[in-house]
Amino acid sequence: MIRVWLVLLMALSNLLFSSAAVGLENSTVPEFINIGVLYSFNTSVGRIVKIAVETAVDDINSDSTILGKTKLTLSFQEDSKYRGFLSIAEALQLMATHTVAIIGPQTSTTAHVISHIANELHVPLLSFSATDPTLSSLQFPFFIRTAFNDIFQMTAIADMVSHYGWREVIVVYGDDDHGRNGIGALADKLAERRCKISFKAPMTPDAKREEITDILVQVALAESRVIVLHTSTSWGPKVLSVAKSLGMMQNGYVWIATTFLTSYIDIDSPLSSDEMDNIQGVITLRMYIPDSKLKRSFVSRWTNLTRGKEGNGSLGLSTYGIFAYDTVYVLARALDTFLKQGNQITFSHDPKISELRGDSLHLDAVKIFNEGNLLCKSIYAVNMTGVTGPFRYTPDGNLANPAYEIINVIGSGTRRIGYWSNYSGLSVVPPETLYSKPPNRSYENQKLLTVFWPGETTQTPRGWVFPSNGKLLRIGVPKRVSYREFVSQVQSTDMFKGFCIDVFLSAVNLLPYAVPYKFVPYGDGQSNPSNTELVRLITAGVFDAAVGDITITTERTKMVDFTQPYTESGLVVVASVKKTDSNAWAFLTPFTPMMWTVTAIFFLLVGAVVWILEHRLNDDFRGPPKKQVATILW
Ligand SMILES: *[C@@H]1O[C@H](CO)[C@@H](O)[C@H](O)[C@H]1NC(C)=O
Ligand SMILES: *[C@@H]1O[C@H](CO)[C@@H](O)[C@H](O)[C@H]1NC(C)=O
Ligand SMILES: *[C@@H]1O[C@H](CO)[C@@H](O)[C@H](O)[C@H]1NC(C)=O
Ligand SMILES: *[C@@H]1O[C@H](CO)[C@@H](O)[C@H](O)[C@H]1NC(C)=O
Ligand SMILES: *[C@@H]1O[C@H](CO)[C@@H](O)[C@H](O)[C@H]1NC(C)=O
Ligand SMILES: *[C@@H]1O[C@H](CO)[C@@H](O)[C@H](O)[C@H]1NC(C)=O
Ligand SMILES: *[C@@H]1O[C@H](CO)[C@@H](O)[C@H](O)[C@H]1NC(C)=O
């Protein structure tokens, strides 16, 4: 009973509290709306984002068509240790300032952690740099991505891998939510194209040079030469520089780096010639922003915007800066609709936090944003044209028409070799020109310009080598005594020769990947070994395969799979040879004597009938009986 009262009392007090919170507001629009920005401002991307967000807020506040008299204010919170527990504390601190939404965080790892807080307090998180695909899950309804989901970037990479005819790739990634989940998406997309990841090389998220070296040495020993690098801007370039020092930037290697490399190049440009040397021939991607008047004017403003803020030259503009700017606009437009619909912005105590009795952490300060759900809805309904181009969401919560530029690092700069769009795959023309045509993903339509691969070659690397650490396939070969032209051991060596071996070697050379093998002789060399026994040893695990003049029999096909037969024996019937006597009358044998007699009788009968019918009318059938008999016979 007491418990029931307690619950009732608590419910009542909550009601009082929340109604009090609502009561503070009236139907007039608020004067200020507070937005939180949780970001690591002390990183190269963070510096750009800060400038872009501040610029956007200034622009919106001076534009009376958005949000009318209401002004946006920003609460910045440095996400200094942008991983784990401290981020939680920082997010809570920000939410205590009654923010209606939070822009950020920078990394997918932090996004995973603080999305739980956003869920509890109904505060939307808008991030343009946490691109981990799994953040789009239903688990995080308050996480809204204002840039492209990595699943599209991974699709683009898988499309490139299959476009160049490679079958296996190696992935090098930071072993955190961002790296792992991105690579998971890549594995799915490769599987759809019958390719696969042959080796995964995870690294601690801020790996030291020694660790990178150890891991890259293992990568160099593997068979595949196509390496996908999915890390963060802060240490990704270090991996490439170690790779260069290990000689892994040479002819034969393919390096595909995800968007981290373009933001490194864009922000820190121009890079020193040493830094450029480390990344020659690398292929990378950049989120595609179509050319427009808005974009051009923003780019030309950028130098002015950065001047003075850093005091130290200008910062290059990365796509993150443009997406950050648009994110604020999206939020402002959503708030505009939200307020025009007559919604209020109210906060109330979280009853679940109040239940934590003896709240020594003072979590009471954080409150639930009551209309968070409505704000999320109006963000997803935004349909505007921003600096990043047309901006709207598809029903699955992704930005419509994601596209990437494909960049080849060459010389002292970069060269765009094409585009990838979700709409039409790889193309050399900008994606927006394709949207008016029906999507065409046919193989002939997928094009990219010539690439300068590592080692300054334009010839597409075949993508694999014979590995030095691979397990050898054990191929059983019968030590034949007879018919040695099919297969036989070369005298006093462990090599084999013969027709079957030649066929096997030619087939292996045609494969698009390496098959390391060794021949293992089978048999004592005194007599021909039993082929059935050789085949049985494959099932027993002694051999992995067998090569030889092994006849395909029903019994053997039950044990192993055979290749197509490559020597034609044909189907023949074999019978014992018997001497038959033959004479001049042999032509009579097809019919029996009875048959011959009947034939002769009919022959005469027909002659007689013809004679009976003809001899009264036809002069030829007259004359002496001897002549008439001759006529009948004739
Ligand atoms: C709305 O509330 C403000 C103070 O929060 C007050 O000054 C104003 O008179 C109120 N307006 C109405 C219409 O109640
Ligand atoms: C920014 O980071 C550098 C190291 O990367 C550090 O030395 C510096 O103190 C940091 N600055 C601030 C303001 O946190
Ligand atoms: C940059 O700033 C200068 C003066 O500070 C101004 O004259 C110029 O028009 C600005 N350029 C742009 C593109 O805003
Ligand atoms: C730029 O940074 C360097 C050190 O990184 C410093 O010595 C220099 O004074 C700075 N320049 C300006 C204009 O702040
Ligand atoms: C978005 O707005 C454009 C015009 O600005 C319109 O043509 C388009 O249909 C709208 N899209 C949606 C999904 O409402
Ligand atoms: C991407 O393409 C697929 C199939 O072509 C389509 O189903 C999906 O809606 C597209 N996604 C976006 C965000 O445009
Ligand atoms: C796709 O493009 C190829 C070559 O560009 C063309 O031959 C083919 O007809 C196109 N298919 C469709 C359905 O438009």
UniProtKB/TrEMBL annotation:
CC per GO annotation: membrane
UniProtKB keywords: Glycoprotein, Ion channel, Ion transport, Ligand-gated ion channel, Membrane, Receptor, Signal, Transmembrane, Transmembrane helix, Transport
GO-annotated molecular function: G protein-coupled receptor activity; ligand-gated monoatomic ion channel activity
Subcellular location: Membrane
Domain Ionotropic glutamate receptor C-terminal per the UniProt entry, residue ranges: 474-620
Residues annotated as transmembrane: 594-613
Signal peptide: 1-20
Membrane topology: Multi-pass membrane protein
Superkingdom of the organism of origin: Eukaryota
SUPFAM superfamilies from the UniProt entry: Periplasmic binding protein-like I, Periplasmic binding protein-like II
PANTHER family recorded: OS06G0188250 PROTEIN, RECEPTOR LIGAND BINDING REGION DOMAIN-CONTAINING PROTEIN
Protein name in UniProt: Ionotropic glutamate receptor C-terminal domain-containing protein
Organism listed in the record: Pisum sativum
